[in-house]
Amino acid sequence: MTEPERNHLSGKALEAYDRMLERVQTRMKELQETSLETLDEEIQKAVEFEYELEEMTREEADLLGAYLERDLKHLMHFVDETGEGLKEWLQLDISLLEHQLADSLLSVADQTLVDTLELRQKLENDDAGHYISGEVATAGMFRCLNCSHMRCLTATSHLEPCEACGSHYYERVTSRWPRKTE
Questions:
Q1: Per-residue model confidence as pLDDT tens for the chain (182 residues)
Q2: Distance between CA atoms of residues 21 and 15, nearest Å
Q3: How far apart are CA 95 and CA 117, in angstroms?
């Protein structure tokens, strides 16, 4: 999908994503037994419902379903691994403060050393869930994989290219995901 097509659909896509999320949440609360299989089934039902509204193409509805599945599975993995909840997964407030502090500290650091450490960290964390600009993602904090600039989504929206360096690649920032092996 080209950038103009993405922008043209952004209003409908964001609303549809939120409707799909709400629909899945409601159904998961009603079910007595939940699993990844039932989550997948409910996401597919939500995709079908959105497609039947005839506001978007099959491909657009399927793409939103894939975005929703990615975000929900990431959340479920985080909760399973840490025992913490949505507030910790979103990391909105504390991450904003951490970013400001990090910027202050990095402004006086040796940039070559910082770049080397960032590259080493990227190479060691190659299994983290990655996001590409243009994708739809739910609220949370995202770190640019190129320059570590933080992007805060306060609602479901499209990830825009990094405003600091123009990179298109992000990772969701959570407290302890993916879990480090000890």
A1: 454 444 445 568 888 988 898 888 888 888 877 777 888 888 999 999 998 988 888 888 899 999 988 888 887 777 777 777 656 666 654 555 555 556 656 566 666 766 666 556 545 554 446 888 888 888 888 999 999 999 999 888 899 999 999 888 898 887 554 445 54
A2: 10
A3: 20
Q: Cα–Cα distance between 38 and 24 in angstroms, integer?
A: 10
CA–CA dist 152, 163 (Å, integer): 12
Answer whether 51's CB lies under 8 Å from 61's CB. yes
Q: Give the 3-state secondary structure percentages of the chain, helix then strand then coil, rounded to 5.
A: 55, 10, 30
Secondary structure class of 178 (helix, strand, coil): coil
First and final C-alpha spacing in the chain: 41
pTM above 0.85, yes or no: no
Which token pair is 28?
């998961």
Tokens 């506001």 belong to which residue? 55
What contacts 170, CB < 8 A, 6 or more positions away?
130, 131, 132, 133, 142, 143, 144, 145, 151, 159, 162
Counting DSSP H helices and E strands in the chain, the numbers are 6, 6
